[in-house]
Design goal:
With 309 residues, the chain is α/β, with parallel strands linked by helices. The protein is built from ten helices and 14 strands. It folds into two domains: 220 residues, P-loop containing nucleotide triphosphate hydrolases (Rossmann fold), CATH 3.40.50; 67 residues, Alpha-Beta Plaits, CATH 3.30.70. It is elongated, with a radius of gyration of 25 Å. It binds adenosine-5'-triphosphate.
């Protein structure tokens, strides 16, 4: 895989002095699906806008397909499709013209067969002769997607694509993302829905207060999610963990009234059966046992909290 988007030490300071991106670096590989997660105001849209060349970085460099997004804007932008959060369509224009015009804007020759297939994929074909103003909000979002795809971009940005959309559109959108992935299109999406990122992304990036806290393979994150904790309440408090239990990942909590055992659910064995036996052999009585699964959401919340002084 080769790198298609390179963000190098990018800082973005808005007029008024607010630093929305702090020395951000990121490499996006061709053909991958990257989900950017972050709380409101984290800088996700700012990052996307700078990559798309809509907002100029205060310092640093961004290249898309090797083209600098500032000095070689047209070549870089031609490779990019952007589905923004806000609906920014011409209300009196017809659907088909909106999409056709967008393709022409990038200097691509007319290709009605391609536009038909995009509109059909988005269940918009029967609306092709409708004016934008006559469409529902969900239909307008579909037009935004069609418009972004009309010039056959190699990198597609979806900014909060499923915020406030119905189940039908969500399903269509993920089917489309799947087809684009098969065609080798690189997809970057921002979302608040962690489960969504988990379902479709290859990698997950977590951004908070203008800083990328982590970019990690989803499978690795899932293996971290697979980490579970078992809380073992004891009948009597203990001053220390007996030496015979030293091989287990145990922590003494509540002044020795309980032990917490951390284990990996995806490992071949959890070690619970032998731990319970060894606890008994060490003469410890069990009052109660509870288990607690850490999820991607827990990891996300923990990381964001840790990064907030
Ligand atoms: N044009 C602007 N001028 C000044 N500040 C701005 C501007 N645009 C965004 N900001 C600020 O920059 C920060 C990052 O905003 P951004 O829209 O990038 O966040 P986000 O992660 O996309 O948030 P959300 O999830 O709410 O869409 C916010 O504090 C926002 O108020």
């Amino acid at each position: 895989m080769s790198t298609i988007v390179e963000v190098e030490n990018v800082t973005k300071v808005y007029l008024g002095g607010f630093e929305a991106l702090k020395d951000t670096s990121l490499k996006i590989e061709e053909g991958e699906i990257l989900a950017l997660l972050g709380p409101n105001g984290a800088g996700k849209t700012t990052l996307i806008s700078t990559i798309c060349g809509l907002s100029v970085p205060t310092s640093g460099q961004i290249r898309v397909g090797g083209h600098d997004v500032v000095t070689d804007f047209r070549a870089a932008r031609k490779l990019i499709g952007l589905v923004p959060q806000e609906i920014n369509l011409e209300p009196f224009e017809f659907v088909i013209n909106t999409v056709r015009f967008s393709r022409g804007l990038f200097g691509k020759s007319r290709n009605d067969a391609l536009l038909e297939s995009i509109l059909r994929d988005l269940s918009l074909w029967d609306k092709k002769d409708s004016r934008i103003s006559a469409l529902s909000g969900g239909m307008k979002r579909r037009v935004l997607i069609a418009k972004a795809l009309a010039h056959e971009p190699r990198v597609l940005f979806l900014d909060e694509p499923t915020a406030g959309v119905d189940v039908e559109l969500r399903k269509d959108m993920w089917a489309l993302v799947d087809r684009l992935r098969q065609d080798g299109v690189t997809i970057i999406l921002t979302t608040h829905y962690i489960e969504e990122a988990e379902a479709i992304a290859d990698r997950v990036g977590i951004i908070n207060k203008g800083e990328i806290l982590l970019v990690e393979d989803k499978k690795d994150l899932i293996s971290r999610m697979g980490r579970k904790e078992m809380r073992i309440e004891l009948t009597e408090t203990i001053a220390q963990i007996p030496d015979s239990l030293a091989s287990y990942d145990l922590t003494r909590v509540d002044d020795g009234a309980a032990l917490v055992y951390a284990y990996n659910t995806r490992g071949e064995r959890t070690g619970i059966t032998s731990l319970l036996k060894d606890l008994q052999a060490a003469g410890l009585g069990l009052k109660d046992i509870q288990t607690n699964q850490s999820s991607l959401e827990d990891i996300f919340v923990t990381l964001v909290q840790e990064a907030t002084p």
